[in-house]
Specification:
The complex is a heterodimer of chains A (112) and B (110). With 112 residues, chain A is mainly beta. Chain A contains no helices and 11 strands. Chain B is mostly beta strands. Classes of the chains: A mainly beta (112), B mainly beta (110).
């Protein structure tokens, strides 16, 4: 089945630790995105990538990093600099900019 | 002021009712409009996508866009308990950057 796969479903981070969230898509989409969802706040854009080896900061990029070495993969690292990382993280992709985005089922990150 | 305003509800209706969900926006540069449905602990699922003023219908769902009033709506006819979810409006104006409303929680009770 074509779609977006996020793993793991649940993740726990210790203080001072970096963690990486995986996002893989087999839709052959050029563009990929990372969002953070907090209760009552909708979705906020962390990073996006329109093409391999290129990415841009979104509205809340501080404390996060990404890479886009392959078209189908867009991993997100939550660094120790992100002081409030507890949230639901969603990855999305689209054929190109301005086309509808399709989402994975998210990773819920919590602090130990 | 937020770029996109959406009443968070919660909204509770009986089965079979017509549901009206709404968003207003402030930036007239928004060109593309979407509605997503999100079940608990799942990612948003695209319901409707439109880029012009007017109505677009898909089964029990109708999306309405009024660019002159900066107002979009989603109507659900013959609502079912399985429609219980959070509904998110979203809009694009450049570089695929989606701006979301905060979501409306809908419960359809039997």
């Amino acid at each position: 089945d074509g779609g977006i796969t996020q793993s793991p479903k649940y993740l726990f981070r210790k203080e001072g630790q970096n963690v990486t969230l995986s996002c893989e898509q087999n839709l052959n989409h050029d563009a990929m995105y990372w969002y953070r969802q907090d209760p009552g706040q909708g979705l906020r854009l962390i990073y996006y990538s329109q093409i391999v080896n290129d990415f841009q900061k979104g509205d809340i990029a501080e404390g996060y990093s990404v890479s886009r070495e392959k078209k189908e993969s867009f991993p997100l690292t939550v660094t120790s600099a992100q002081k409030n990382p507890t949230a639901f993280y969603l990855c999305a992709s689209s054929i190109s900019e301005n086309q509808p985005q399709h989402f994975g089922d998210g990773t819920r990150l919590s602090i130990l | 002021q937020k770029e996109v305003e959406q009443d968070p509800g919660p909204l509770s209706v009986p089965e079979g009712a017509i549901v009206s969900l709404n968003c207003t926006y402030s930036n007239s540069a928004f060109q593309y409009f979407m509605w997503y449905r999100q079940y608990s602990r799942k990612g948003p699922e695209l319901l409707m996508y439109t880029y012009s003023s007017g109505n677009k219908e898909d089964g029990r769902f109708t999306a309405q866009v009024d660019k002159s009033s900066k107002y979009i709506s989603l109507f659900i006819r013959d609502s079912q308990p399985s429609d219980s979810a959070t509904y998110l409006c979203a809009m694009i104006y450049s570089y695929g950057k989606l701006t979301f409303g905060q979501g409306t929680i809908l419960t359809v009770h039997p």
